[in-house]
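worker-3 :: picked Beta-1,4-mannosyltransferase
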Amino acid sequence: MTDKSKVQNACVIVLGDIGRSPRMQYHVKSLSENDFSVDFIGYVQSPPLEEIRASPNVRIHELNPFPELELPNILKYIFKTIWQALGLLITLISIRKPKFILCQNPPAIPAIIVAYLYCLFARSKLIIDWHNYTYSILELEAPDSLIVRVAKKVESFFGARAADGFCVTKAMKDDLYTRWNVRATVLYDRPPQQFQSISIQDKHNLFLRLGESVSAFRTAQDAAGEDIVECTAFTTKHRNGEIKLRDSRPGLLVSSTSWTPDEDFSILLSALDQYEREALAMPAHYPNLVCIITGKGPLKEKYRKIVDSKSWKMVKLEMPWLENEDYPKLLASSDLGVCLHYSSSGLDLPMKVVDMFGCGLPVCAIHFDCINELVKHGENGFVFQHHQELSEQIGRWFYDFPSNIALANMKQDIQKHLKKFQTLRWTENWRNVALPVFKK
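worker-3 :: tokens ->
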């Protein structure tokens, strides 16, 4: 049991959906397991991790979302900022005085401003976790606008005045210091324990369960032979209880996204168009391909309509929403991952790749400046610049699938590097890197 006399108060702020903020949830979980009582402030549009909901050391404070109003964009942004600032301030005043506030950035406005002012009066420490830059994300939609300039000023002014900080790459650490004289500790994302390789039994059970709602996991016809009692598109279960991968199974390609402008899924669709043409030309060498894209967000319906207009015969693309416990299992059951996250700053890394590596899944990732801090081309995955390169990588991986002897050595080498990556998990890395900063 935790000695209550040693427990210290901490506050973690996410001015977004905490259920879709995995890194901040992992912070909260780790703090709660290391003698901190945590007030976790944010929006609760998706359920947080069960370990957080069940922890006696965590209190979740739900912020009220800004009401939908028919206003010009600039007015809506101003009123929303005031609404968020007041809601956050009222919540902070109501909680126990924390030793520190850990605030996610982005968004900087108004979270960092309110957190800094509160810490000034409460004599608490402000620690910023830099995932990216707010101004660089705003720049995607409104380059050279007033709001971009304001965001840059806010990040530079308050960032330099925070007591401490974390960031997600060495490139960002260097940039923060040279750009704004901000010192930050690099805390790489690492996979938590649930992102790991799984048994063929677990894969079969997952395919059966997902097959109830997603047709791509169901087999079009029962596998031949009275010996088989259960069958999916990828696996068969025999009367003696043995489960086997089907020799004639499709390739399983997976990606996840929040369907925002910083991920261009037309690149993947163009690559799949090319795969379709090659597979139809050489059906003896290329398997059918099932592509699963998980997640939800503003551009999902746009891409769903594009996919629905395709008349693919060798490719099937589905966009299911998965339960929290099924997502890691899907990654561990797939053959290849795709990441289209293009960093707005060129300085952050996609957590989805960390999760895929944690499950032993090699990844094709789009190139940007610091992606080589995570994806090593030819070692644990592949890096591509455009849809032709992605198509070539997918085609090479699935050529004569699943038993291409010529690729066996390369795939074994990649698995060796992924196994090494899997040895360092979030908990151990956090204790080594982050806990000393919080304990100061």
